[in-house]
Amino acid sequence: MPTVRVELSPGRTHEQKREYVERVTRLTAEVLNCPVESIDVMFVEIPSYDWARAGKFFGQPPADVAE
Fold it and tell me: Minimal CA–CA distance to 2: which of 58, 59, 27?
């Protein structure tokens, strides 16, 4: 059972995610030769204040987020 985990920043619409899920599911089934019913896709949205590159965060946490 393939599981595709997509980590991304928030901001995509449900429609964009729906289209992605449909496409990646078809491609996964084709390449890995498995039924689409066995494929899971999950999105993990990571806010910019929890995402860093080269030692620097992309954003600052909002005031209501404990540091």
Answer: 27
Active site residue 61: no
Going from the N-terminus, what domains does the chain have, and what CATH number goes with each? 3-51 (3.30.429.10)
Reported as a single tens digit per residue, the pLDDT across 5-60 is 999 999 999 999 999 999 999 999 999 999 999 999 999 999 999 999 999 999 99
pTM for this entry: 0.83
DSSP secondary structure of 11-62: ---HHHHHHHHHHHHHHHHHHHT--GGG-EEEEEE--GGG-EETTEESSPPP
